[in-house]
Amino acid sequence: MGTEWVKSLVHYLDDFLFGGPEDTPVCQMMLDTFSDICEELGVPIASEKSVGPVTSLKFLGLVIDTVEMVVRIPQDKLLKLKSLLEPILFNKKITHKDLESVVGLEVSVWIVGSSLIRNAFVHARSRTGGVNLGLHRIGVKIWWQGYGGMGLKDLESTIKRLMKYEKAPKYLVLHIAGNDFGKTKLGFLRNEIKATLEKVQSYLPNSSIVWSQILPRTNWRHSISQDSMMACRIRINSAIASFVLKNGGHYIKYPDILPNSTFLKEDGVHLTDLGNDIFLNNLQGALEMFICSGSYTYPDTFGTSMYILSNFKTVLATVLSQLHPHFSGG
Question: Residue ranges of the Reverse transcriptase domain (predicted)?
Fold first, then answer.
């Protein structure tokens, strides 16, 4: 078989699809081989997300049916589209912006937070892709709203003010609460964040809330105990991420940003150029994943290590012949 079967491998970001002839073990063999290779390379896989071999499955938001030989839009998406179109049918006219929203030409994203967001916006302007992080190609328009010293108490009034100027976004990315650590007890802060997010969601019922992980620091505004604040950060991020995901939202993590001078400036709070690059890269990757593949967490179990494989098909074919010599025959 050689490595010809690699041509039956398709992947987009961290979603992989294998194909093979009917009534053969080819698909299962490819899946097993892929799993073995990932284990050999130390790449974790979320096994609970693996499907098949089957003749019908959802891939990148579409259902592929190899029996009927069709690719169809899932029923839930059709119902959602119908709900968007029905109100328009009763209007005599529609604005250009509303039309773009319905047909999917524009995906509005608000990114709201403290000076970390303001600085990220400034840094994004000098990067390839600009303030829309290169996502204009899939219709994304980002509105950056970063305010120095912003705390949790400021979020509700900020959202109300923004709603006066712009239509509700598809995604609301919130990077907040880092400035609130040490002011109150952990349990109170956790409950306060949840209550605030519930209020924000009530103002924007059709927007998906994205919790942007609170970053590590070496200097906390209301505490001198670094170990205590870092422990609180982990617990708050975990609790709020679970809360947001449970309510249909999304979660962005930044595992590569560490509390040291490589990523943080001398003030121990704001990001260096490298830190901002990583922060923006994760925002870009997360938004693209959420929009294009329906993921809820970024990076997820598998995606964390995918950057290791810059040319996956070539690597897969090479390693395959070494791990499984019987596949490399004529």
Answer: 1-64
36 token code pair: 């073995």
Lookup: tokens for 241:
């991420």
Amino acid at 72: R
- Please, what's the b/e burial string for 234-243 (b: 16 or more CB within 10 A of its CB; e: otherwise)? eebbebbbeb
Q: Cα 176 to the chain's mean position, in Å?
A: 17
Q: What is the pTM of this model?
A: 0.66
Using CA atoms, how far apart are residues 62 and 77, in angstroms rounded to an integer?
9
Q: What is the CA radius of gyration of the chain?
A: 23
Sheet containing 62-65, strands listed edge to edge, beginning at the edge strand earlier in sequence: 56-59, 62-65, 70-72
**243: nearest Cα among 287, 206, 193:** 193
Per the structure block, which two tokens stand in for 327? Answer: 């596949």
Query: How many Å apart are CA 75 and CA 22, to the nearest integer?
Result: 26
Scan for tokens 């900020």, then name that residue.
Answer: 158
Strand order across the 171-175 sheet: 140-146, 107-113, 171-175, 208-212, 250-252, 297-298
Q: Taking the chain, what is the end-to-end CA distance rounded to the nearest angstrom?
A: 6
Split the chain (330 residues) into runs of 10 and give each run's mean pLDDT. Answer: 58 71 80 80 72 80 84 82 74 66 75 96 94 90 94 95 94 95 90 96 96 94 87 94 95 95 94 96 93 85 38 46 41
Cα 311 to Cα 28, 123, 278, 307, 308, distances in angstroms: 23, 29, 21, 10, 9
Write out the DSSP string of 282-294.
HHHHHHHHHHHH-
Q: Strands 297-298 and 250-252, how do they pair?
A: parallel
Helix (H, G, I), strand (E, B) or coil at 100: helix
